[in-house]
Specification:
CATH class of one domain in chain A: Alpha Beta
Oligomer: homodimer
Number of helices of chain A: 13
Strand order of the largest sheet of chain A: 2-1-3-4-5-11
Strand content of chain A: 15-25%
CATH architecture of one domain in chain A: 3-Layer(aba) Sandwich
Radius of gyration of chain A: 26 Å
Number of strands of chain A: 12
Shape of chain A: elongated
Order of helices and strands of chain A: HHHHEHEHEHHEEHEHEHEHEEHEE
Distance between the termini of chain A: 79 Å
Largest interface: A-B, 56 and 56 residues
CATH topology of one domain in chain A: Rossmann fold
Helix content of chain A: 40-55%
DNA sequence: CTGTTAGCGCCTTCAC
DNA sequence: GTGAAGGCGCTAACAG
């Protein structure tokens, strides 16, 4: 691979001029510029990124830390991040943690090594856990944006939906259909998404004048399997609910599975609502009624905010709350007419 | 952030010694080493990766080029890649192309910029398309490994399953159940996976002495939607097949959807087999019989091969063909007893 | 075993 | 509008 001085030689100019042609072409006379550009193309020259990073003290890379890349929800967010990254000339470094503190720490250290200029966190808890990390890491964090989750009580820039409002849409839909006995499958209770969605759930029931029954809430871990297990518990009861709101689509799919194993029909015997609107939700049997999040847009916005922070071209926004939308499909309907009492 | 010379000063040694403590500690006396390490920890020092890259001429990063990160199949492969990358000290750069040549090229140029030392390609066609790319790119490619797909007629290192053998497992299973009229939904015909799986399909029918009917093969694009469309065409026919082998799980799910829309029951009226064994396959209705690929292992092996190439510690393997496994679930059964003729 | 020295390739003053 | 020079932080000879 040729270097800048090769180009300089080939074009009969100094390396400073080559550098200018690349970074600030308007400072170079038209014909010098043409000569240099010709040499660049002829030799297929690309500036060495390590040299540039060392000199400019920035890597033009961002690190995306995600708990599980295999989760289609996160994959979609990353997709959005990557779209903007490419547009704005940033490279995406992928950090998959499986919620393993050792791995989280390993990735945070890449920041200290200056491999990335900024950080997008898809996991709200990470910085809290990182408390045990060397002061260097915890202290001077780079520009950073949370996506989806956030860390309550801090004011890091965040992109997400209004989770409580989303939950309200779902529950109101069930109320409108006539359901009175509604259960919920939550995520882990410490999770901020769980809390916000649970809040929306309770508020809506309260507003409707319905007492909510604590025993109708079971927590899973956002996985389909956990939804199925929670569903089995909830539906095996004599006084089972006629509808269940699930904190995400995967758990809703699990509940549907549990229902069908118990011989219950969805939605005739049980209505189920999810959250996210994964690609597979619409193709599920029955097609899943769910609260859609604009996943791609969340990723895109997060990366835009980070780039604005990094390039300080645009005035940085500090928060972006995107809209959810209730998608009514076939997994919800009126409650069964005859209830055994 | 402190630099190496800060550490040198703090520990009362030269930067060369600090460097040795970090890279080749066995060359340093025990107490110097301890002093330096203490300083490193106290100041929270991390070597600057740009400086190191510039000096050593390697980035310890690999670029993974993937057609669609949102596809759960690819996401799982990347997961495996990332596991090994972390273990071996490499950073994963993510390149999502959407099969867009402009994007593909943008990512290939990162190689020229020396942002990555090696390349994992999840798309066999990329290098062929890249023919129009500046000679620099096409000519001196870095160490590279194909995963899943490959470029026939070349001998780049490749990790994949034996796709023809996998298809044979699927079709043999259908034959064993008594099916004689078997259709296939393929991927795009130029795709190497399509070709290999189609080959396995035809060979198995031939070996069984069954003539295969060209009109029973329809090509989709590996998406669920395309599977549904292909399914509709195939199943609307008077002489529809009693079983369909699909080149991946998503299309199989689409076929099942099409079948149910036509009032056909799976597997009573139609058996369906997929390929991949996505996470959702086991939870589908009906649970999908499919040919499982060891996705995580494919990713891990590809990254191991690339690291071996890069570090030349281990003798590089040139190919790794991993095993597929037929997973029989609920989407296949004997053909319907009464055929209308 | 440790220090000195010389760059890796680029950008950015500072002169002209 | 252009060139010369210095240095970003690190590692790899080469001495000692």
């Amino acid at each position: 691979m040729s270097t800048m001085s090769d180009i300089a030689k080939a074009a009969g100019v100094s390396t400073a001029t080559v550098s200018r042609v690349i970074s600030t072409p308007e400072l170079v006379s038209e014909d010098t510029r043409a000569r240099v550009q010709a040499a660049v193309e002829r030799l297929g020259y690309r500036p060495n990124s390590a040299a540039r990073s060392l000199r400019t003290q920035k890597s033009t890379a961002v690190l995306v830390i995600v708990p599980e890349i295999g989760n289609p929800f996160f994959a979609r967010i990353i997709h959005g991040i990557e779209q903007i990254a490419l547009e704005r000339g940033y490279t995406v470094l992928l950090g998959n943690t499986e919620n393993d503190p050792v791995r989280e720490r390993a990735y945070l250290e890449m920041i200290d090594a200056r491999r990335a200029d900024g950080l997008i966190l898809l996991n709200g808890q990470l910085l809290r856990r990182a408390a045990g990390v060397p002061p260097s890491v915890a202290a001077d964090l780079p520009p950073l944006v949370f996506a989806c989750e956030y860390l309550p009580g801090t004011d890091w820039p965040t992109v997400r939906v209004d989770n409580a409002a989303g939950a309200r849409l779902a529950v109101q839909h069930l109320l409108d259909l006539g359901h009175k006995r509604i259960g919920m499958i939550t995520g882990p209770l410490w999770n901020i998404l769980t809390r916000d969605r649970l809040q929306g759930f309770r508020d809506t029931l309260n507003d409707a004048g319905l007492a909510w029954d604590e025993s109708l809430m079971i927590s899973g871990d956002f996985s389909l399997e956990s939804g199925a297990i929670a569903g089995q518990k909830l539906l095996a009861r004599e006084d089972r609910p006629t509808a269940v709101f699930c904190a995400n689509d995967e758990m809703a799919m699990g509940v549907i599975k549990a229902a069908s194993q118990l011989g219950l029909r969805v939605p005739a015997d049980l209505s189920v609502v999810g959250f996210d609107d994964l690609k597979f939700a619409e193709h599920w049997t029955p097609a899943l009624t769910t609260v859609a999040q604009p996943m791609l847009e969340i990723g895109r916005t997060a990366m835009e905010m980070l780039c604005d922070l990094l390039d300080d071209t645009a005035p940085p926004r500090n928060n972006s709350i995107l809209k959810t939308k209730l998608i009514v499909r076939a997994s919800t309907g009126p409650p069964p007419v005859v209830t055994r009492l």
